[in-house]
Design brief:
Chain lengths: 247, 247
């Protein structure tokens, strides 16, 4: 005898604009009762805020509260407990949707739940619009074309790693800029690429910022910020105005 | 006096499943009369096929027919003519939607139209779900996490370029595999990564294939195929079953 158990859906909700949800994400969010999402220990869950218009009072919400302190991340106990909560719904034949900022498998925290639940439960990933593609759209410049090489590196990486990737390929995306902004800017300047770097934050949202990195004054940026570096761009791309560029 | 002119929308329609369109793409496609898309010189347009259920008889369709011969790509004359056709609608105050497989600015041919029209017309990019994220979802393995480095290289690149990126970082995505499959497989094997490579084709479509690269027999693959290489994967990822793996 087999019992159908609930399905765990890891759902990408895109970079911020609710209209960048996929039709599939929208369908699953509106038709599933149990909705889980990461939340900071103070303030609102960004993933939840993107879809809040579709979360009516009938939903059962599971906020996975992650302490936003660098040294504690990933917070093992929090994910252990969240996995137990989610599993109890799945084992009662209820589907569970986990909301993931951007795409679930592109630098997302969903992997910590997936790691704990994928072996024992049916799991489906619904890919979403990544901040990487949304940033290129906001910058108004193709990210990669033809046989370009694109590398994605994380802002907290060591200087040597950042410098290494700045020396090769055609486009480099630095994600998770946050408190590393001043250091990253220094490394990009040292690599002679400051005039080829675009800074973006909160893309697709009302407060979106897009500007040449050279014009960015602040020393720290929001966690959801990115630097795109067009290393080997063709001249017609260089000549495009940058969205938001005041010059 | 300023005249409002039409807006050119470069719209990502995702990797193939129509349900992976964004709500925004769906809205713009259903409310815009003039719809352009790339089409092969024989057979159906893949981008059009994804949204065909929403293209009623009232639409004015512009098929941009690209000869599928390697040596002629990009087909300058074809894009020159398409840009003239599209511009004539924009200048008549009509919006034009250009359908783009995946995401418009991630290795897409939309850049050839963007290059010709962005300086003279209002242009908005609507990012879409990329085949990169859809492939990771189909493989059932996180693409990148924490401070991983992800590099994207194109299958037609030279051996030395492919080999260079196989030696570094955490995840490598090889796109546009197509007729380069046997050569790429040889390079991956030489780098000692054959058992860490997953082959995917036509992800999110009915005929989707996902399998360990080591089990792929064919020497050529469809143009829309990808190899994901998890170079430095953690052991729990290595132990996951690959979706579609028969072993």
């Amino acid at each position: 005898m087999t019992t159908r158990r609930g399905t765990l859906y890891g759902i990408g909700v895109g970079p911020g604009d609710p209209e960048l949800l996929t039709l599939k994400a929208h369908r699953l969010i509106t038709t599933t009762r149990v909705i889980a999402y990461p939340a900071p220990d103070t303030g609102e869950s960004f993933a939840r805020s993107i879809v809040s218009q579709w979360l009516d009072a009938d939903k059962h919400e599971i906020a996975i509260t992650i302490p936003m302190r660098v040294e504690r991340f990933p917070a093992k106990d929090v994910y252990d407990q969240a996995a137990i909560d989610i599993a109890s719904h799945l084992e009662s034949d209820e589907d569970v949707v986990v909301l993931c900022e951007g795409d679930p498998f592109f630098y997302g925290s969903f992997m910590y739940l997936f790691e704990r639940l994928a072996a024992s439960h049916t799991c489906e990933i619904v890919p979403g619009v990544s901040s990487l593609m949304a940033s290129a759209a906001a910058a108004g410049r193709p990210l990669a074309a033809r046989n370009d090489v694109l590398s994605v590196v994380a802002g907290p990486s060591e200087d040597a790693t950042i410098a290494h990737y700045l020396k090769q390929g055609d486009a480099i995306a630095i994600i998770k800029v946050g408190r590393h902004l001043a250091r990253l800017r220094g490394l990009i300047e040292k690599a002679g690429l400051l005039d080829r770097a675009i800074y973006l934050e909160r893309v697709t949202l009302g407060e979106q910022k897009v500007m040449p990195l050279a014009q960015v004054g602040a020393d720290a940026a929001p966690y959801f910020s990115m630097i795109l570096i067009y290393r080997g761009a063709e001249s017609w791309i260089d000549n495009l105005p940058i969205a938001g560029d005041e010059m």
